[in-house]
Amino acid sequence: MKKIIQLIAFFSIALAIxxxxxxxxWLSNSPPSKVADKIKKAGMRRLPVVYGKKRQMNIIQWIxxxxxxxxxxxxxxxxxxxxxxxxxxxxxxxxxxKIEESELGFxxxxxxxxxxxxxxxxxxxxVRNDTLNFRVAKAERMNHSCRTGHDKALIRVQPKTYPQQxxxxxxxxxxxxxxxxxxxxxxxxxxxxxxxxGVELKSGxxxxxxxxxxxxxxxxxxxxxxxxxxxxxxxxxxxELRSRxxxxxxxxxxxxxxxxxxxNDEHYSFINYSSTxxxxxxxxxxxxxxxxxxxxxxxxxxxxxxxxxxYYRRRRRVEYREVx
Amino acid sequence: MNKIKTYLNNADVSRFRxxxxxxTFVLFVYGGYWGITIAQNLPIFACPYDHATGGTxxxxxxxxxxxxxxxxxxxxxxxALLTAFGTFLLFFFFLNKAWCGFICPVGTLQDWIxxxxxxxxxxxxxxxxxxxxxxxxxxxxxLIWLLIVPLAIANSFFGLPHMSHDWFxxxxxxxxxxxxxxLFTGDVSxxxxxxxxxxxxxxxxxGILAAALFIVGSFVKKRFFCLFCxxxxxxxxxSKIAFLRLNKYxxxxxxxxNCYRVCDVGIKEIADDVISKNIVKDDCMMCFKCVExxxxxxxxxxxxxxxxxxxxxxxxxxxxxxxxxxxxxxDDPK
Amino acid sequence: xxxxxxxxxxxxxxxxxxxSKTTDRYQRMKKTSSIxxxxxxxxxxxxxxxxxxxxxxxxxxxxxLASVFAGEEKINTNGKKVIATTCVQVPTELILAADxxxxxxxxxxxxxxxxxxxxxxxxxxxxxxxxxxxxxLDLYQVDEKPLAVVNPTTCDQKRKLGEVSTDLVDIPYYxxxxxPTKDSEEARIYxxxxxxxxxxxxxxxxxxxxxxxxxxxxxxxxxxxxxxxxKFYNLRKGKPVIWGKDAILITNAYFYDNIERWISNxxxxxxxxxxxxxxxxxxxxxxxxxxxxTGSPxxxxxxxxxxxxxxxxxxIxxxxxxxxxxxxxxxxxxxEWYIYDMIPALADRYLKPCTCPNFTPNxxxxxxxxxxxxxxxxxxxxxxxxxxxxxxxxxSRKIGKVLEKNGTAMLSIETDYSPEDHGxxxxxxxxxxxxxxxxxxxxxx
Lengths: 324, 334, 445
Prior knowledge:
The complex is a heterotrimer of chains A (324), B (334) and C (445).
Chain A: H1 2-19, E1 25-28, E2 40-42, E3 47-51, E4 57-65, E5 73-74, E6 83-88, E7 94-95, E8 98-102, E9 105-111, E10 116-128, E11 131-143, H2 153-156, E12 168-172, E13 189-196, E14 199-200, E15 205-209, E16 215-219, E17 225-229, E18 247-263, E19 266-281, H3 285-323
Parallel strand pairs in A: 11-19
Antiparallel strand pairs in A: 1-4, 2-3, 3-4, 4-5, 4-9, 6-7, 6-10, 8-9, 10-11, 12-13, 13-14, 13-17, 15-16, 15-18, 18-19
Chain B: H1 2-10, H2 13-30, H3 58-66, H4 70-73, H5 78-95, H6 98-103, H7 105-119, H8 129-154, H9 176-180, H10 198-220, H11 230-238, E1 244-248, H12 258-262, H13 269-272, H14 289-293, E2 300-304, E3 307-311, H15 314-321
Antiparallel strand pairs in B: 1-2, 2-3
Chain C: H1 2-12, H2 24-50, H3 59-66, E1 81-85, H4 92-97, E2 100-104, H5 110-119, H6 126-136, E3 148-152, H7 156-164, E4 173-176, H8 185-206, H9 212-235, H10 244-254, H11 259-278, E5 290-295, H12 304-311, E6 315-320, H13 325-328, H14 339-351, H15 363-376, E7 380-386, H16 390-406, E8 409-415, H17 422-444
Parallel strand pairs in C: 1-2, 1-3, 3-4, 5-6, 5-7, 7-8
Helix pairs in contact in C: 2-5, 3-10, 5-6, 8-14, 9-11, 12-17
């Protein structure tokens, strides 16, 4: 009897949670349009930076909330509860960052000196509606400039997890031969591994959303892994084909377990783990090359035909002059 | 009545046609922006690859509807093909091939390229008669190709394996309009070569080559593409029973050849044939330049439901081609 | 270029004069012929003007023009150079575009015919002989001597004329190569090339460049002349207001007159004739048979057949001559007003609708005649062929059959320029006209 009531409660609360505005929080490289011109970009991946004292470079990330990357709103401090920021540098050491509200918006910023990828985590832990919520927003940003060289690239790109500080992890498995310059593109098959408190999550529901709104949901296997085949977004607008344009995609999952306890004098009957992982991708190489090839073929054949016709007409004219 | 007739016979049909072409070009290339969709089975190249199109070319719906298995085609669903075809014929009968000359946006585009060439004084090309004979077959080959391939994709001919779906739509992928018309709305998506499979690669490359050929060909020859257009071939099969007619009364013809001289598509029969009455040939686009240029009263005539609308007349000819009585003939060319 | 060589040599040869012209005999011949020519012209004009009452006033200009050889002043070319032609097939628009005056030399005088007979075989076409006589004696209607004679290769007698008379004529000949057929594509392309070459020759010999604007202007002015001629042509489709002999004079004037003057005078004439139609002032009544003249052209002063026919009661309402309707009827239509289109357009117009029997097959002439018979309500056709004109002679049987099938009466007359067969022809014509009158009478009943 108690079990049935618990089950009903579980579902209703899950429902309540899903409609109560428990939005997904994720970290983004893209600034809001009003400050877009003021932002400087650095490194090969064009990460948004601000320069502090003594030309110290600070990478900044915007916090956004919403389901679709294209039209998520920029979060406000009220959207976050009891939030902690963890930033890890390429060597795995912790870096002190800050969450602040400035003229650029509600941003996360941290000093970045080393070359490699930084892992940024926003961890929230709060109790609401009789549920303990762990909400993590993760981003892996590659801060690379070719000046610093490419030695030990294969080692430097390997993913790292921090189970002590971060309860939920979504890890993107690296491709074979991945190096510091690799960017995701449509056509790639990406594998993600999900860990809760260091343990693989079996049969969890993972969802992937691309910038233009293509969604796919899959369940993790016994190893906690799930693979998505990236498909082509509609990138036919000319302004979207400018080089180095990147889009965001999100990986999201949420998992609830029935466990009771008390934290900070608040009782909870369920624990809800939800995490987002935001990363960037660019339009596929094949897309660019198909347009470039087409342009070559078009212009080349127009040029050849024009030259051919010109010489054909000239030849006829010259021949006439000789006869007459 | 006579006054109207004289007015029409003396009118500058070419100028009227120029303005109608601009209007229909805007209508069929940008009509979608105002929510205008005229029809789906039009006898012109109003390309649906242009997302703001104001109508749809019949050939694409024909290809889609033929992309069925034999049993579906001959079942109740096959009725849809008949209605589509019926709508196409209904549109076609009213204006016969004047759809080509007055309304087709691809034709209009070629006429504009010709105007540009005229303005810079480059000479046009004429096909020699022998070349003409060989080139004319190509449009019928295109028509057969676009009718057979969708059926071959969905069915097996003579026990051979089905053709891959990458060959679909067979004519649209090689049509220059698919590449060029979307450019008018800023859409460059069709200007691409599809590397995903070999048939797609071949077809899209042919499409780009066709677009290049279209641009250069229209520059040097008036209405270059109309010689190869499968829509024109399809229309010609039914042209004899359409309502708008172009008639010639051979007795009055002095074989001066003016009509052939001004014909954009270069139809020789209009000047040489003095026996037939219905003088619409398969390349004809019914622009009526021949009627304008004929100086014999009543030799060429445009008739709708047997009522003559436009007749060749001596006064009309001199009004259009002769010296303007008021204007002084100066040394400046037009 | 061959023609360059020829013309340069010839122009050097201008002075002193060619051998044949230095003799005393030549001077005597010239004097006698001029007198004979003047007499012939006066006589012909007298018949034209005085034997027919009620000539339109505007015709006075044309009568004056026709009497150039009878002592009237020669036509003023306003200092323009003159290019002479011997056939209707030469594109005169090109000559006009080079600021030159085209002069058609086809001769109609018996006096010069006699001169020509001395140098050419007896059985030659009298028109060719007369033309040779004209050129040999330097009797031109214009005040300036032509720079060159353009001689198209139409009938074989004209074709050889240039070659065999280089010692008699001191102006260089330019042979314009006309194809012998006009239906095939090869002939058309060949002729277009020839006309293009001709335009280059004209530029060279006159020293003026044919530009796009000038060619357009000359095509339009010829179109203007054609418009006026067509108005005149259409006026004769109704009840007759003008005699055929006058009509022939009008188109004859086009051979040598300044084109703008010609246009304005024909305009005047048209206006006057329209008034006559309004006032129902006809020159003949319904009983006069309407006659179509065809065959070898009647050129002033040899208007024997027209004058005779009309004196005997017939009215010539239409002629299918290369000196009248074929010269001015067909128009040029140009699609793009650039040289690359205007010159082929001209070439096409001079080749395609031509009904001259030197082309084979010549079905267009049959169709044209049938159409004219229908348009003008013709009662009878008079087919004139000159003695020695093989082409028109050979076609007469064919045309006769076609007309018989159509139910039109035809009279074949073979004649030449001499006035000796006047009586014979008169009898035959009288019989023909009478038979037509009777037929008309029966038909009306």
